[in-house]
Amino acid sequence: MLGFLKSFSITPAELEVALDEGMTFDGSAIEGYSRVQEADMLARPDANTFEIIPWRGDDAPVARMFCDVHHFSGEPFDGDPRLVLKRNLDRAREKGFTFFAGPEMEYFYFENSEAPPIPLDQSGYFDLTPSERTAELRGETILTLEAMGIPVEYSHHENGPSQQEIDLRYTDALSMADNVQTFRLVVKQVAERLGVHATFMPKPIGGIFGSGMHTHLSLFEGDVNAFHDPGDPHGLSKVGKGFIAGLLHHAREITAVTNQWVNSYKRLVEGYEAPVYVGWARNNRSALVRVPLAKKGKESSTRIEFRSPDPACNPYLAFSVMLAAGLQGIEEGYELPPEATNNIFEMTPRSATSRGSDRFPNRSPRP
Fold this sequence. Notes:
Blueprint: H1 15-21, E1 23-26, E2 40-45, E3 51-52, E4 63-64, E5 67-70, H2 81-94, E6 98-110, H3 133-147, E7 152-157, E8 163-168, E9 171-172, H4 173-193, E10 197-199, E11 213-221, E12 224-225, H5 238-249, H6 251-258, H7 264-267, E13 280-281, E14 289-290, E15 304-306, H8 315-332, H9 349-355
Parallel strand pairs: 13-14
Antiparallel strand pairs: 1-2, 2-5, 3-4, 6-8, 6-9, 6-10, 6-11, 7-8, 11-12, 11-15, 14-15
């Protein structure tokens, strides 16, 4: 549930057995997996995820693969987060859709892991200075990601001191969930190698901006973007509107998965560009769900941006609930509420109530 990456190592001699039969592990030792009387489980590697780990060197190369979890009977384990996402992707495929995701990963660098945290710089959004250590860290991280087959769209300094953003190029949601897990490991590994500490804690310092995982979502029918309708004044199809309506309708409950830490709710407060009220808008970054403007000549790139998740989430489960909520909106024909045309960050509880906007879950009592 908490998104921690679990692992074990095998020698090359065991690889054939692992691929053919799976490797045994104690499922009861992992919280939420199995009871002690049914402890033995199988991890079956997905050979499609085979990648050499660049930082281990060429003398004794090491590779990684993600695994699917099975019972000894051979049945897939229902509690495997990767299987949860696969089930939802299968449901989308039955309706003719392929689900794509592109997250913007925000995080912090600190001098060390001790409290209080000490930022490496006091720079702000898009800042670049000749002595910026964090630019070097980002660059080394991107080179490592590219070496592992994970393409990066771009990177920059974020709002907070020593806060960074690296945007992963969109791909199918299962590959992206694997990429997010790898990304977090790479960021921490590169930081540790260069003598600093990286954290994906949503709100590591009070009084400054927290870290989000704004996620761009789209459904495709074959090669056709199902969210795009050239006949609509704003280019948004019925499918796209239904998907947004589903996200809004289920926004409060799916927050338990997309923002699952106590610390997550220190981010979802007024004043720091994090969602506070449930609403949607086009080119308006104060909304929970945003429909970004498409570049001229690329109107078919229509997508939805869901802005509440944070980078500490379990990406398999987070993508699952986003997709499930969106599909529910399409299937049930949820009505899309009016678009927010104001600055939602400036709304008061009273004005939100008058507009029918629900308060987003946060650490303070609901007014």
